[in-house]
TrEMBL record:
A Pfam short name: TrAA12
Region (Disordered): 213-245
Domain Cellobiose dehydrogenase-like cytochrome: 25-199
InterPro entries: 6-blade_b-propeller_TolB-like, Beta-prop_PDH, Cellobiose_DH-like_cyt, Quinoprot_gluc/sorb_DH_b-prop
Name of the protein described by the UniProt record: Uncharacterized protein
Signal peptide boundaries: 1-19
Chain segments annotated as coiled-coil in the UniProt record: none
Biased composition (Low complexity): 219-228
Biased composition (Pro residues): 229-245
Residues annotated as domain Pyrroloquinoline quinone-dependent pyranose dehydrogenase beta-propeller: 260-650
The UniProt record lists the keyword Metal-binding: no
Natural source organism: Sodiomyces alkalinus (strain CBS 110278 / VKM F-3762 / F11)
Length: 651
């Protein structure tokens, strides 16, 4: 989903509405709305009661869209994440309104703290569909880990909209999946102009028996444990690898075509998960999965190598990616966009206890993932990566801003209420745009795989040209020993890394060189190295979107998941790659290939027709982890159409 860039500060594709684009209209039922029509011809209307008092006041929305639109959404908070969302779509002669919330840039979950009641003037005709609804709970909310947000009934509030021409998967289902938006933008209506003295008269005669959103039911199957789990006093030390099944009973087939490298086989372990992101293995070989919008689920294996049982370990819809266990498997860490939590974990019972907030104050906005890792040799250190706010987040040139950065927190001495992310802990490098993939090598030194920027133009002597298809590279950076501070700057937001050198025609470059977008008298490309920007150790194809990484047993290969692109004429990514490593004379681990290599990543597991993939049509590898015997790799795919878990096994 890329409702994201509405928030990420890039120019919103569908524009941003100034006050003068807002107008008042009266609909066929005689109700007056403050309205705005975007370039796709979708009209958004808002009405509230005269004299509404800040807090939780009622609001009416009306969304009218041409029938060519698959779904249209409104964010009450002006961003995709941490705001109540209304998503509407046609359903035969009717329409649906789904109350949602997103804690990452993935399919929003149902949101139960806001309720929409349909009002007359909802339905479809030959050309348009219209949803008119009263919302309770849309003007005041408290995002997890942040303070309350109240929309000002007497002033301007920034809302956001997004839409797609692709229909939702199942229009009957209020909890249906749907793909990312085609475009998005913002609208900042002055709510004082949306006030109307007759507001309550408009639905005086209407009974509101059934909210459009059903009350919460457990969306996770209760434990379906069928295999009795022995309880030895210790974890089995040298596990026997489980057999590799050719398929798993009751699991649907692969949602889309794929290929695997020679020597590997792919098996689907589970489907229909809720946006599976980060995954870890516990000391008994059970798989823990962050299902974004749900929490953490735990899956045990049966003797056939398939899942034997699945249950919810932590219910917290705000958890969106980060997960890690200490090497002894007894302490679990997870993150939401704003907060890192610690739990005691019991791998025998698969239960958590003693929740503690260990890091807070991670910004609510920008890139939402807070990847974490606990270096095996330093079980008391929690390493957390926090990405940039915008595509180019200028203030992050100062590390004290606390974004585009990796920081380390000592869990032996957590302040009351948790560390504040941007003022406490210590640096493990800054100028790291969005390092979602973190891995620890055989020395417990940290490697970061970074998502480079989008929409790049190179400007030289006032002339700009497009270089974005193959630049900047996704970077592999060495952050070093996490037990000591690493104050180094890795270049962002000023210095970026070349992947496709041939796209830069104004100078001679090779893959791995650093460059600036617009060289000038005070900062040339060569100044990147001169001013201490640490070059990437390897470069990968631009826009492949690295999500996670795992070393094999002997640290001879790093396996990286590439989620797949949106900002490229031909799609790329949607695969798992293998990068060979070696140990050098100083005992340090490093990639085999030199920094100017373009072929360091070898494909292991890929989507068929990669270049025409979208986030909806192809799998999107995300979390990756080896089993205890290092013979099987587990891979989560958080594609909105279906969350899947795969197993890659050596054959
Ligand atoms: C269909 O609905 C739209 C939006 O309410 C309206 O503008 C249009 O006139 C309607 N068309 C017909 C044929 O009723
Ligand atoms: C890949 O392309 C081929 C040829 O166009 C087509 O038959 C096949 O269905 C495509 N596969 C996927 C997963 O899109
Ligand atoms: C020169 O380029 C640097 C790096 O991109 C930038 O920070 C600086 O503002 C530029 N200076 C001028 C005068 O444009």
């Amino acid at each position: 989903m890329h409702w994201s860039t509405a928030l990420l500060g890039a120019v919103a594709l569908a524009g941003s509405a100034a006050a003068q684009d807002t107008y008042t209209y009266t609909d066929g039922e005689g109700r007056t709305f403050l309205g705005y029509t975007n370039t796709a011809g979708i009209r958004y209307g808002i009405a509230i009661a005269e004299g509404a008092i800040e807090g939780a006041y009622d609001a009416m929305i009306q969304i009218t869209a041409p029938n060519s639109i698959g779904w249209a959404g409104l964010s009450w908070g002006g961003s995709m994440t941490y705001s109540p969302l209304a998503v509407v779509w046609p359903n035969g002669d009717d329409v649906q309104v789904s109350s949602r919330i997103a804690f990452g840039y993935s399919l929003p979950s149902l949101y139960y703290d806001a309720t929409y009641f349909f009002l007359p003037g909802s339905g479809t005709n030959e050309t348009h569909f219209t949803a008119t609804a009263l919302c309770m709970g849309c003007t005041s909310w408290t995002p997890p880990g942040a303070g309350p947000i109240d929309l000002d009934p007497n002033g301007e509030n920034t809302l956001a909209f997004a839409y797609s021409t692709s229909p939702v998967t199942d229009p009957d289902d209020i909890d249906t999946t749907f793909g990312r938006h085609d475009a998005h933008g913002r609208w900042s209506p002055d709510f004082s102009q949306a006030q109307h003295p007759d507001f309550y008269d408009w639905f005086e005669d209407i009974e509101f028996p059934c909210p459009t959103v059903p009350p919460p039911t457990s969306s996770v199957p209760a434990s379906t444990s069928s295999i009795p789990i022995p309880t030895p006093s210790d974890d089995p030390a040298d596990p026997d690898p489980l057999p590799v099944p050719s398929s798993c009973p009751g699991v649907s087939s692969f949602r889309s075509g794929f290929g695997v490298a020679n020597g590997w086989r792919a098996v689907k372990l589970a489907g229909n998960l809720r946006t599976p992101r980060g995954i870890v293995l516990d000391t008994r070989g059970n798989l823990l999965v962050v299902e974004s919008g749900l929490g953490v689920t735990v899956h045990t294996f049966g003797p056939d190598g398939c899942f034997a049982s699945s249950k919810t370990l932590i219910s917290n819809a705000a958890l969106n990616h980060g997960i890690g266990l200490t090497a002894d498997g007894r302490t679990l860490y997870v993150t939401s966009m704003t907060t890192a939590f610690e739990y005691s974990y019991d791998p025998v019972a698969q239960t958590v206890s003693s929740e503690r907030i260990v890091v807070t104050g991670m910004i609510q906005g920008g890139h939402p993932t807070r990847a974490l890792i606990i270096p095996p040799a330093y079980p008391h250190l929690l390493v957390i990566s926090l990405g940039s706010y915008d595509n180019i987040d200028h203030p992050t040139i100062d590390p004290s801003v606390g974004r585009a950065i990796v920081k380390v927190f000592d869990m032996r001495d957590v302040p009351q209420g948790g560390y504040r992310y941007n003022t406490q802990g210590y640096l493990l490098g800054y100028g790291l745009r969005n390092g979602v993939a973190l891995a620890a090598d055989g020395n417990s030194h940290i490697w970061e795989v970074e998502n480079g920027a989008d929409q790049f133009q190179r400007t030289v002597n006032g002339q700009s040209y497009d270089i974005h298809a193959d630049n900047p590279a996704e970077e592999l950076n060495y952050l070093g020993d996490p037990s000591v501070e690493n104050p180094n700057w890795y270049g962002y937001p000023t210095c970026h890394t070349i992947f496709g050198a041939e796209q830069l025609t104004d100078a001679q470059f090779q893959t791995g060189d650093q460059f600036v977008l617009a060289p000038n008298a005070t900062f040339s490309d060569a100044d990147c190295v001169r001013r201490g920007s640490v070059p990437a150790r390897l470069s990968f194809q631009a826009h492949t979107a690295p999500m996670d990484a795992a070393f094999d047993r002997d640290f001879e290969n790093l396996f990286i998941t590439f989620h797949g692109s949106w900002n490229r004429p031909q799609a790329t990514g949607y695969k798992v790659v293998q990068v060979p490593y070696t140990r050098n004379g100083q005992g340090l681990y490093e990639p085999v290939d030199p920094p100017n290599s373009r072929t360091a990543a070898r494909d292991i597991f890929w989507s068929e027709n990669e270049s025409s993939c979208s986030s909806f049509t192809c799998f999107r590898p995300c979390g990756i982890v080896f089993d205890r015997a290092y013979s099987r790799l587990f891979v989560a795919s958080d594609r909105p159409a279906e969350g899947e878990l795969f197993m890659l096994a050596r054959v």
